[in-house]
Amino acid sequence: MSKYVEIGYPIYEGMPVFPGLPEVKLEPKERLDKGDDWNGSVLSIYLHAGTHVDAPWHHMNNGKGIDAIPIEDFIYRKPLLIDCPLGPNGFITVDKLEEYEELNEADLLIFNTGHWKHRETDFEKYVNNFPAVSPEAAEYIRTKLPN
């Protein structure tokens, strides 16, 4: 039996969002206790709030939007979690990637830098000083990994 793991942040009213973006709002509309036939609400959320995928359209006018990418493209059978604690503005390196023998078998790489800890405690650091994949490591992933 397959096991799916949710890796996103919960969505809730007032959740942290990137500075300048609209706040997440949940507006109750219908309520059973007020005589309506159902409970219903309107959720307003900017597409780049919380956990999200930047589809090609985000940076290319003629790129695919997230609505054009099949959900099956987001289901992975051999994900690999790479623990790589990094400080603000740190880089994931080729040396770090080469520590993982199973890298060539993976169809998804998930990097746990520990930076997520700043989301609730120091949001400015979270959005402005995040770790990243070094250009060399990005090229390594693009050219060396079959999946």
From TrEMBL:
One biological process term in Gene Ontology: L-tryptophan catabolic process to kynurenine
One example GO MF annotation: arylformamidase activity
N-terminal signal peptide: none
Native source organism of the sequence: Marinimicrococcus flavescens
InterPro entries, alphabetized: KFase/CYL, KFase_sf
Protein name per the record: Cyclase family protein
Domain of life according to the entry: Bacteria
